[in-house]
Amino acid sequence: MKFLLVGGGAREHAIAKNAAQYYEVHVAMPYKNPGIARLAQYKMVDILNPQEVADYCDEVSPDLVFIGSEESLFHGVSDEILKRGHVCIGAKKKAAEIERSKAFMRRLLEKNNIHGSLRFKTFTDTETALRYIDEYAGSIAIKPARQAGGKGVKVIADLQAYLQEEKKDAKKKHAEQIMQEHLSQDLEDQILIEERVEGVEYSLQCFTDGTAVVPLPLVQDHPHAFEEDIGPETGGMGAVSGRGILPFIENSEYRKSLEIMEQSVQSIRTETGETYCGVITGQFMLTDKWGPTIIEYYARLGDPEAVNVMNILENFDEVCEGYLKGSLAKVKPRIKDTATVVKCISPKGYPNERGMGTGKKLQIDFEKIHGLGAQVFFGSVYEDEGDLYTGGSRAVEIYAEADTIVKAGTIAEKATRYVSSDWKLFHRHDIGSQGLLDKRMRTAQLVRDVYQYRGHHGLIGRNIDWIPGIGKIET
């Protein structure tokens, strides 16, 4: 059986590695990923060009196509592949709008009364957004309305009255920056401003054919560049998963998260007229207002979260057969009983000055890394005459597993020593550490106590504001 994969990062490297256990793997990728090239037959194509990718599918005649890259989905690659008669795991362009447009996602949740709908406003121009910021004194998250790989997101807590004007200036500057960088240029909505929430984030990745929603284990991504969750947002600096469930999430919270995903998949079909067939990932936060709360949706596996789950999914072939035979509802993922940690190693300059870290030579001691029981997955790396060079984004992802997250984190941390360069590389030492896990546990319990109290008193999702001269306002 032939399996054709679209994409070229660490996520696709992990997918290709799993698929190669069962299938003859072919990959359409934008540059030569050294890890994928060793596993599969491949061709360098423009993965944003539907005709070019579909032509390669016609050439290979695969039994199944799997689209890893979100930008391919946004550009209608899945639509063209399906039009040519191939079976494809990848949402059509209209359905993938759930990730491409954060504004579309927020409206969908609000319109369909889906649990965890945050208050929000969208803006098509800077002037209107700035006027709103001038009048709004609360804590907010300011985002580009379009998915931009973690770029352009800023959360500003407006808690100190004496800094109110300074915080307002920071909000305005960030809104202007989003417009100047054209992060949402292919959408009508340019800026999304939503209420700020706090809590513990986690990802739920699911396979779906539009009816059945088949969940994978929960993973926690770490989007901030630096230790202790500070620094700019990135595409993800690493991720952890536990045995069975994340240690700071309860089973009832997991079930509620899956229910939100199922409702969302049904709502996409109602809203767009398209059956959602592919992968959908919910980026959740456990908050004091709602409990499980959707922050973003992805129309594909996460990166690095895919590296965690694809290494412990032991029946990927049965999932693929479920798509081919229309029997996905009967498939139950078989998951290896282990905890996992992924650490991403990036060149200095990532995420905001990627050009700085491009073209830097990498040295990797695979023998020592494998001797520790860890693995290397290639992200933004290319090969030239046998040497490896950075592409400016996350270069490699180190994967390790053990019977606890902390033990897996220790293995992954030791393995990072064997990736080096004359250029400065960095990664987060704290991912998978006991200290960070303890912090997650404390935060989760704190917000859990509050949202359960709110639930007991019928206050879940309700906003209560006090306006001087008017009094209490509930929404």
How is this fold's topology laid out?
Elements lengths: L1 E5 L3 H10 L4 E6 L4 H4 L3 E4 L5 H11 L3 E4 L2 H5 L2 H7 L4 E2 L7 H4 L1 H10 L8 E4 L2 H10 L4 E5 L9 E3 L7 H17 L10 E5 L3 E10 L4 E3 L4 E2 L2 E3 L3 E4 L4 E4 L9 H22 L5 E10 L3 E8 L6 H6 L5 H10 L13 E9 L10 E7 L1 H6 L3 E4 L2 E4 L2 E5 L4 E7 L2 H12 L2 E3 L3 E2 L7 H23 L7 E4 L3 E4 L1
Parallel strand pairs: 1-2, 1-4, 2-3, 4-5
Antiparallel strand pairs: 6-9, 7-8, 7-9, 10-11, 10-16, 12-15, 13-14, 15-18, 16-17, 18-23, 18-25, 19-22, 19-24, 20-23, 21-22, 26-27
Helix pairs in contact: 3-5, 8-9
Give the gist of this structure:
The chain is built from 15 helices and 27 strands. With 475 residues, it is α+β, with helices and mostly antiparallel strands. It has three domains: 2-90, Rossmann fold (3-Layer(aba) Sandwich); 119-195, ATP-grasp fold, A domain (Dna Ligase, domain 1), CATH 3.30.1490; 199-426, D-amino Acid Aminotransferase, Chain A, domain 1.
